[in-house]
């Protein structure tokens, strides 16, 4: 029996994630939104594309949570998108109310689901989702580090004129201005980028990565990034549904790992059919630890504002 993925929020990120899933054929999809007609219309459009993709995945649009019942994975993209000049944290209270409502329904209809949170500010929303659903922390995670690393890989591939497939990058910490890219784990076919580029250029590319979302928001004028966030989310979905055991940077609950407790932060994990199957702990340098602590402090401030 084909597995079931429910996507809560049929905006650009949600609909594009739905496209990647049904196009791959690995699961059936429920596309949920409260906007009358939007999830139904987008789902119908995607269903009509499936024959062209040779995909037998089914997709249904709905505004009824009952249709999401028994989901294997629930992806939450619902929420307000950033506008020019807004930070991810500016969305805090508005999106927190949305996430709470969504998670109360998820807990009722899909008590065994794995939850992937995409809504910003993502790390805080993931923690709120975990608290609200009362699911195991292994089954609630946030998407951020994969997207940040992908942006850095793209910028590096342009700068070095090499295939992005040959570039590996690792970004820890919160999905925000205080994210922690690790240059010594960023390589081209095993060669550290510090061997290929001067520090000044690396720093400039990292700064562009930090502002990757804001750069797109400023160009679009209305709306925010969605192709890359959806692709990053799909990589997580695929690793879980196919039990690929991929090592991916995701926002997960830390309970002593990396010296942090009771907080969702981006770290490398093994994703498989059980969700977060293992947190991979790497030894950080003194400078990296300081940056990681700073990122944790930024996220904790937002968590405190919501009294989670």
Please characterize this protein's 3D structure.
With about 300 residues, the chain is an alpha/beta fold. It is built from 9 helices and 14 strands. The protein folds into 2 domains: about 5-140, 3-Layer(aba) Sandwich (Rossmann fold), CATH 3.40.50.720; about 145-305, Alpha-Beta Complex (L-2-Hydroxyisocaproate Dehydrogenase, Chain A, domain 2), CATH 3.90.110. Helices cover about 40% and strands about 20% of the residues. The strands form 4 sheets. It has a 6-stranded parallel sheet with strand order 3-2-1-4-5-6, with helices on both faces. It is globular and about 50 Å long.
Task: Supply database-style keywords.
14 strands; 42% helix; 308 residues; single chain; 9 helices; L-2-Hydroxyisocaproate Dehydrogenase, Chain A, domain 2; 21% strand; six-stranded parallel sheet; 2 domains; three-stranded antiparallel sheet; globular; alpha/beta; Rossmann fold
What is the secondary structure topology, with strand pairs?
Blueprint lengths: L2 E6 L3 H13 L2 E6 L5 H12 L9 E4 L10 E4 L15 H18 L4 E4 L4 H12 L6 E3 L2 H16 L6 E2 L2 E2 L7 E2 L5 E2 L2 E2 L6 H12 L1 H9 L6 H15 L4 E10 L5 E12 L2 E5 L6 H21 L2
Parallel strand pairs: 1-2, 1-4, 2-3, 4-5, 5-6
Antiparallel strand pairs: 7-10, 8-9, 10-11, 12-13, 13-14
